[in-house]
Amino acid sequence: MKNLLGSGDLSKSSAIQMLDLADQIQQIKEVGGKSISPVGLTVANLFYEDSTRTRISFELAEKALSTNIINFSVNGSSVSKGEGLIDTARTLQAMGADAIVIRHPSSGAAKILADSDWVSASVINAGDGTHEHPTQALLDAFTIRKRMFGSESTGKDLQGIKVLIVGDIAHSRVARSNLVLLKTLGAKVYLVGPPTLLPSQGFESASETHYSLDDALEIVEPDVIMVLRIQKERMSGFFIPSEREYSMLWGLSSERLSRLSESVLIMHPGPMNRGLEIDSLTADANHSTVLEQVANGVTVRIAVLQTLLSTDGKNVGF
Ligand code: CP
What's the whole-model pTM score? Predict the structure, then answer.
């Protein structure tokens, strides 16, 4: 496997292999394991869009693998002088980048790099526009598997697990990548949100679509609720009546949580708009996996980098 551009790049067996590798890495980390093969590979983190979790966890993963790291932020770079994406990637490649982790506001930016004859480095999509965020989907699947199966996780898929994705699905690369990966792993995916935030295409493989959160919670009886951030920065018009009405109708509140099973998992990829799509009591409840998702992001990204960098006779390991 050379690139990871979307969840569709992962077959069921390769996804389970990646999650199992993350499991092994987590066990090694828990007993204080250190990187074992500093081989001088270089990873460039190419961030054209802001990020806290993804950028820092990739950097920590790269340090765990003893790779050299190039951190590129668009602010302060020669992008302001008109340098394009491919020229920027080629420049970093000329300085030794074996892999490029890219976050970009344009859907398809990662594929443009991967398809370019000029770019030979592995390309990992760290979120492109409203399109895909495959490492987020992997860390979410890893988190669900860990919560559901604990130390018995290895080799397990997510067959029959019901995941309800709530909110701003139209603008969400997290929802797109999760739908594909969760389906690959055998989960059932349900969607709920206001009609203006439900996409007209690309989500046909979801089991059901609802417009009322209260109805969806009652009908679906989900094992996992994945709450999405309202992405105000990607909205050019009016998509929700008002923030107050959105939180009343589609926000996950402690009152709604009190009607659900004790074992339901509450996930959010972050950053959260507390008081809008989720209230603070719910975000911080025992049901919530928000900070586990963040921690698992490092482990899963070590697994992704190790898998991609170990192809083509390269040798990298944790
Ligand atoms: N979930 C996620 O991608 O968060 P960041 O934007 O902080 O990386």
Answer: 0.95
